[in-house]
Structures are given as C-alpha cells and as structure tokens.
Specification:
Pfam families: Erythro_esteras (PF05139). With about 425 residues, this protein is α/β, with parallel strands linked by helices. About 45% of the residues lie in helices and about 15% in strands.
Length: about 425
C-alpha cells in the first residue's frame, strides 16, 4: 500500500471502516474466508476476551475442527497445566484402555480456576477429538503449556522416574529437587517469599534435572509419549521456579517468564512431532495478540503472539482475536474465590467492542490485510476480562489500548454471549 492511499484511509472513521470490511456470520461454514486467509500457516492462535464465555469455546472448537479436517493440524496447545491436559491427551489418543467419559477425564483439572477446562463445552470437544482419533491415521494431541503446575509436575517426574529407573541418576536428581521444594508446603507464595531472600533457592537442582533428562531422553521413549511428558514436566519445574522467584520482584518480569515458557513448550511439542506439524493455540487475547501493538510494550512486556511472530516467518503465524459487547461470564470476585455467573455490561463508548456493536448488533468477523491495514492501525480500547472480574470497575481496568490490525490477523466478534457451563 502506498503512503498516500494509507493517509486517505486513516481519514475514514473506525466505524466506517468496520462497516466496509466486517462480514456477518451465523455458521462455521460462513467463516470460510477466515480459513482461506489462514492459508498454509503452521501456527494458528485462537484467542478469547474472557476465560468464562461459552461462545469463545464453541466457536474456537468449530474452527479447530475445520483446521484439523481441512488443513491437517494435529496439535492443540492450551493455556492449561501440562499434567491435567496430559490426562486429556492420553484419553483422546487411547493410551489408556478404560471406559471413562470425557467429563470424567476433565476431573483432572483440580487447580483453581477449574472452570477454564472442566466445563461442558470442553467435554463436548474432547468427545469429538476422541472419536476423530479413533478413525484418523494422524491423531490429534491436546497439550497444556502453562507454567503453574510446579508441584504436580514435580510429582509426575518423581513418580515416573522412581517407577522406570529407580536407581538412575535422573531419579536421584528429581528427589533432590523435590526435597528442595517440600518445605514450602505446596504454596507458591511461600516459595516466592523465600526465594526473594535466597535467589538461588532451588535453581541448581531443577536446572541439573532438566539437562540430565534431555541428555538421557532416549531412555524414556515409548509409544505413549512418556519422553515428551517427562521433558515438559521438567521444563515446567525449571521455569515455574523462575516464575515464582520473579513474582516478588516484578509483575512484568514474571509475565514475560510465563509467556516465554509457553513458547518454549510449544516449540518442544512441535520438535517432538516434527517441525512441519501444525499447531493450534488456545489462549486469552492478552497472550495471543501481539503485545508490541498494545500498551504492554511500554512496560517492557512481551507475549506468545509477539514471540512466535519474531521466531517464524510472518505468513506461518496467524492470530485471531475474539470479543463480545455484552452478556454473562463465569469469573470470580477475587483470586481463589468460588466461580460466579456475572453480567458483562455493554462495552464502554468508543471502545473496539462498542464500535463493532454500533455498526450492527450481530456476529461478524474482520480480516486484516494490506488493503485495509491502515484503517485499523490506530489506537482503540480493547476489552480483556480475566478469571478475576468486577463489572463495576469495567471502564477503568478492563480495556487494553491496541492497534487492532497490528495485534491480530483477524477478529471474531460475538455481539451477545453467555457464561461458560462448568462441570
């Protein structure tokens, strides 16, 4: 696009730009232009504006099914704990011969906020994945890439090594690491406080363990992905230790460690299955939408979407944001509290979600490309709701200044949404 044309486009209001380029949809078949725009991308990042909205899960699942069936995607990575997601992976791949139902498998998600993955929407999707894998030559995997499962991952490592190689060096290293963390009583906050005073509290133990497992990974190979499971759990130990130490120093630093871990896990999973394997990533918009196109950049923060774009060819990474104008959501008033069904108030005037609503109160999607890039390359408030939410504070802390055509490659808007259905 030449600069003159770009300047002419910017004179058009954001509302007019949306009217010109938004496409309505009622079915996943009507999202075919989005599938075509994804092209041959190897990474497709599907976001969400909340962790508790039914439609974000169901539409992502519908798109994911088409990507699997039509474009050969075989890996799904989600903003969840590795050990819990590994139970789902084993279930859909038939690694365990049992008569469990998908909802029973999701009982593995015991760490708060359980509703993110233990919900009816995911249960339906997991049932589809299992049925698909039973008939497919290329089975689809389901993996958790978050960093929070320090104790659960440690227990998995110790248990597996004690069972398979009890007298080996890796087993001894795992027990030493476990002994280092044991005094903190499974409370990350306790470790964070202690680590602030002792900067190398358990660093050496987990670093040696991960290095040893990587050098001995051939010992653990089998058809049930035990070697990958061991390696990622050890990676979680190393990076979670780093994350919890950083918590006491800087929110920005711990954020970056978490997102860098998620990218590291994504790359490990792709390396394991072959670098040509295509992966779908489900995370909050704040993780998949390029941080350099938001005010996070001023704070020195990065995220999964930005790092993947930096590490790969731009055409290999395709990020899709999701949003809503109003409805209900599952969230909690403070960290660790029971989940509640809350009302999402109508979007604040002149924000991205408000503009999308004012241009027609129906579902629509936008594709950002060279012909319209300049129209959407301007700052606008973009709604983000986390697991902790207070609707009364909506206008003050729930909008991230963003340049939409830089942050995403496409955006899916569901005008009115309903709360997720926890199991």
């Amino acid at each position: 696009m030449n600069s003159k044309k770009g300047l002419e486009q910017v004179k058009i209001s954001l509302e007019e730009a949306v009217k010109m380029h938004a496409q309505p949809f009622h079915s996943v078949e009507e999202l075919t232009p989005l599938l075509e725009a994804i092209g041959d991308a190897k990474f497709v990042l599907l976001g969400e504006a909340t962790h508790g909205t039914s439609e974000f899960y169901t539409w992502r699942a519908a798109l994911t099914k088409r990507l699997i069936l039509e474009k050969g995607f075989s890996l799904i990575a989600v903003e969840g704990d590795w050990p819990s997601c590994q139970q789902v992976n084993r279930y859909i791949k038939g690694f365990e011969r049992n008569e469990k139902k998908s909802a029973e498998t999701l009982e593995a998600f015991t760490r708060w906020p359980t509703w993110m993955w233990a919900n009816e929407e995911i249960a339906d999707f997991v049932s589809w994945l299992k049925k698909h894998n039973q008939a497919a030559s290329q089975k689809v995997g389901f993996y958790g890439i978050d960093v929070y499962s320090l104790w659960e991952s440690m227990e998995e490592v110790v248990h597996y090594l004690s069972k398979t190689n009890p007298s080996g060096g890796d087993s001894e290293l795992a027990k030493e690491a476990f002994a280092c963390f044991e005094p903190f009583n499974r409370e990350p906050e306790n470790y964070a406080v202690a680590a602030a005073d002792f900067s190398k509290t358990c660093v050496e133990e987990v670093t040696k363990l991960l290095a040893s497992i990587r050098s001995n990974e051939d010992l653990y190979k089998n058809e049930y992905e035990s070697d990958l499971n061991l390696k990622i759990n050890a990676l979680v130990l190393k990076n979670a230790e780093d994350y919890y130490r950083a918590m006491m120093q800087s929110g920005e630093m711990s954020w970056n460690i978490r997102d860098e871990h998620m990218v590291e896990a994504i790359n490990e999973i792709r390396d394991y299955h072959g670098r040509e394997a295509k992966i779908i990533i489900w995370e909050h918009n704040t993780h998949i939408g390029d941080a350099s196109a938001t005010d996070m950049r001023k704070e020195g923060m990065t995220n999964v979407g930005q790092i993947l774009r930096e590490q790969n060819r731009l055409e290999d990474v395709y990020a899709v944001g999701f949003g809503t104008h109003s409805g209900t959501v599952i969230a909690a008033p403070s960290w660790g509290d029971p989940a509640e069904k809350m009302t999402i108030p109508p979007a604040t005037p002149n924000t991205w979600e408000d503009v999308l609503h004012r241009t027609g109160a129906f579902n629509k999607f936008l594709l950002f490309h060279s012909e319209n890039f300049a129209l959407f390359d301007r700052w606008v408030g973009h709604r983000a709701i986390g697991v902790v939410y207070n609707p009364e504070h909506e206008a003050y802390g729930n909008y991230v200044p963003s340049k939409m055509s830089q942050r995403y490659d496409a955006f899916v808007f569901i005008d009115s949404t309903q709360a997720l259905r926890p199991l």
